[in-house]
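User: I'm putting together a teaching handout on how sequence relates to shape, and I'd like one worked example. Could you take Alanine racemase from Arthrobacter ulcerisalmonis, show the sequence you're using, and then write out its predicted structure as tokens right after it?

Assistant: Happy to. First the sequence, then the structure tokens directly below it.
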Amino acid sequence: MSGVLAGRNAPDYSASWPSTRITKVTYPATPGETNPRSGRSPRYERSAVIDLEAIRHNVRRLVAVASPAKVMAVVKADAYGHGAVPVARAALEAGAKWLGVAHISEALALRAAGIDAPLLAWLHTQDSNFGAAVAAGIDIGCSGWELERIVAAARDQQRPARVHLKVDTGLGRNGATTQMWDALVGEAMEYQDEGLLRVVGIFSHLAVADEPHRPETDQQLATFREVLAAAEDAGVDLEVRHLANTPAALSRPDTHFDLVRVGLGVYGLSPFAGQSSAELGLRPAMTLRTEVSQCKEVQADQGVSYGLHYRTAAQGTLALIPLGYADGVPRIATGGPVRIAGRTYPVVGRIAMDQMVIDLGPDNAEIEPISGGAEAVLFGDGADGGPTVDDWALAAGTINYEVVTRISPRVPRQYVNEQASPDSGATMVRA
Ligand SMILES: *Cc1c(COP(=O)(O)O)cnc(C)c1O
């Protein structure tokens, strides 16, 4: 057989080869399966590798920063693309006391997985299932309009709802306005007296905490203190007051109150434009990697991908990377970095639905030739000088939050370090 079809490029349609089985398109991955050819742990042709030890490390760091306030790990949107259930478990192991999500449906999925930690859901619609939330012991964020529905659900379930009243201190999204506040607190307290609910929390969300020099955070903080005082005057007896997100948890101890709601930091990413994860003591938990599909020699002036917006400068090699916008790689991010064999190459031409191309350039005797099967990393923890989520955010004109959150379900999540190592310090934090 000629070289191109020999060896590891030979066709293999074996149904037991994990990375080609259709069931592997869903996640989480089944642990413990081995590659039948090598006998080694599963090898995925494409995966988002989630390092659960990095999650635990980040949570321990946030627990230390927030102390004596407690940590709520925000695991909405499938834990920002990392997988809600494994991340929630790792976060709780590392000392998070609460979990937070946007939708009741997300909270119910955590309960269905057997997670019984305190859990808050804060974004609702007319059709949200408050009854299921009350039945499952899920705390409900309430901006005002939901109150009647929550009370009806509590009557139905014959169980008081646990409610966190949300105030809009300036973000202009959900939350009661300060004008509505006293009326909302009054109404909630009447229902509390009837045994239909308990107001256990008051919270608000910050608008500009990622820009620590801006004065609006001080204004939001002052407003939050005022509404807390008003609620306490009305006899509210709270378990938790909470305001801070990741940037505020890291930069504004005066916003911590009893609980900080941290999302981005749990995943090891920096919310600040001028500060890296490492500078904040955080470790990015997701590595997006695949293997080169194919390498081929082309002539100078070869057009690349739809629109032919890129042409090779000289005779050389193009490498095909089997990830595209259907996998969540932003289509606009031409130029984004791909690391192969210790070197970083920019994506050239348009990113397509399933694939994209990098130009390895003319054959270079000084570097080891790259061939199909070579590991290709779009982003990882950056520790080896390799590309990071922030590089892709820059290439796409967006923020790191969006890049990880939009990695699609077609990319299997592969979990590493599922067991906490005994010397990791987790037990120390729990004590
Ligand atoms: C998403 C969210 C958070 C977490 O924000 P990060 O910046 O990721 O820490 C906290 N609170 C609310 C209300 C949120 O919607």
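A couple of points you could highlight for students: Residues 50 and 82 are 6 Å apart (CA to CA). Residues 1-7, 17-32, 425-431 have pLDDT under 50 and may be disordered.
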